[in-house]
Write a structure and sequence with these properties.
Blueprint: H1 2-16, H2 19-28, H3 31-48, H4 50-53, E1 74-77, E2 81-95, E3 102-113, E4 115-125, E5 129-137, H5 155-191, H6 193-208, H7 211-220, H8 228-258, H9 262-269, H10 274-282, H11 287-310, H12 322-325, H13 332-337, H14 343-365
Antiparallel strand pairs: 1-2, 2-3, 4-5
């Protein structure tokens, strides 16, 4: 009897729950989405507080450590055993007597304890607050968790700094394309006529042009003497120009089918404005598709920026993005000798997979009655 009462209570809670409560219950059942959400939150946290989290600035050079290998964090010492304070071993440069290739090896005689909340290079958090406290660092020698590049710059610091541009450009670009796609697609599908013909011909033109060459052409038109901020917004607009076309076509087809439904006619008879009918009645009818399109478009924007920057047409140095970092890994010989230069690729892959899993969970949650 008690179990029957609990089941009845659960059924009652289900039928009286709001739409958002039902969506949250359905979303929690999607394990991949529940895993992807905190991963994305962590990545964006790193991007927001990159100045504090990284031990060095993105342009700080260490001339004595060109192409230094990554240093592993240790908690066990061969002589003292387990230690609470983590540490890394120092690096010692050697030269191959046959090829004269210089490389670094671990020097276990030099142990470098890692301290937290240490004072280091001054920086401006978000360009506003002058600080000099970093999350971690060492007192004697520098620490390179991801190694260094050809100029001796810390790859860990540069990767975290690069996430700010690569992650934010996806959000800004997607919201621009989402606004354009829903607005123009809604106008074309709901009103039809001349507006529909003009908008759809523009969509057909944009869809017929190969994406990469168009991106390259538009990105190449950006003046090279522009500041980092101007270039950033220019690349965002370039990526948004194409992103809205496919969404506008789908929104148009949905509204063509929904504008003659009974609830649309009832809203029109009750005196609702055209804009209110589109925003409050028609668009929520296919909210699940919009959510999926949004979450899948963000990684596409990130990949687009990465591709443009990798080809030298996107974000330009001294600004750093995941694409500009991968420019150093264009040659097979460099990657063969210094494979840690490919570490930014794992950040790109993790971000894209996390957004895809999150999109699947949100798609299922947007229709909780299934």
């Amino acid at each position: 009897m008690r179990s029957t009462g609990n089941e009845g209570q659960k059924k009652e809670e289900y039928y009286v729950a709001s739409q958002w409560q039902l969506m949250w219950r359905k979303f929690r059942k999607h394990q991949l989405a529940m895993t992807a959400a905190p991963i994305l939150a962590f990545l964006y946290f790193l991007a927001i507080f990159c100045e504090f989290i990284t031990p060095y600035g993105p342009l700080t050079r260490f001339p004595r450590y060109l192409y230094a290998r990554p240093q592993r964090i240790h908690f066990f010492d061969k002589t003292k055993g387990f230690q609470i304070r983590p540490f890394v071993y120092g690096l010692r440069r050697k030269t191959d007597p046959k090829t004269f290739h210089r490389y670094f090896v671990v020097d276990e005689r030099k142990k470098l304890p890692i301290y937290f909340f240490v004072k280091g290079e001054p920086y401006k958090l978000w360009g506003l607050f002058k600080l000099n406290v970093h999350l971690f660092g060492t007192k004697d020698n520098p620490v390179f968790l991801f190694g260094t590049d050809k100029l001796g710059r810390d790859l860990f610091s540069r990767t975290i700094y690069a996430s700010r541009i690569s992650l934010s450009i996806g959000l800004v670009g997607v919201f621009l394309s989402l606004a354009l796609g829903t607005l123009l697609g809604g106008v074309a599908g709901y009103f039809g006529g001349v507006a529909d013909s003009i908008i759809m011909r523009v969509v057909d033109l944009l869809v017929s042009i190969p994406t990469i060459p168009l991106w390259m052409a538009l990105a190449a038109a950006v003046p090279r003497d522009w500041s980092i901020i101007k270039t950033y917004f220019a690349i965002t607009i370039v990526l948004s120009i194409i992103g809205w076309a496919g969404l506008a076509r789908v929104v148009r087809s949905k509204l063509l089918a929904l504008r003659e439904e009974d609830f649309t006619m009832a809203a029109r008879i009750s005196g609702a404005t055209e804009g209110r009918i589109i925003v409050r009645h028609l668009l929520p009818s296919f909210l699940s598709y919009l959510i999926v399109n949004l979450t899948l478009a963000i990684p596409n924007m990130i990949l687009g920026e990465t591709a443009l920057s990798f080809l030298g047409l996107g974000i330009q140095p001294p600004a750093v993005s995941w694409g500009t970092l991968l420019q150093d890994a264009q040659h097979v010989r460099v990657v063969a000798h210094h494979p840690w230069l490919m570490i930014p690729v794992f950040f790109v892959i993790t971000t894209v997979l996390a957004f895809n899993f999150l999109g699947d969970g949100l798609r299922d949650a947007a229709d909780p009655y299934k």
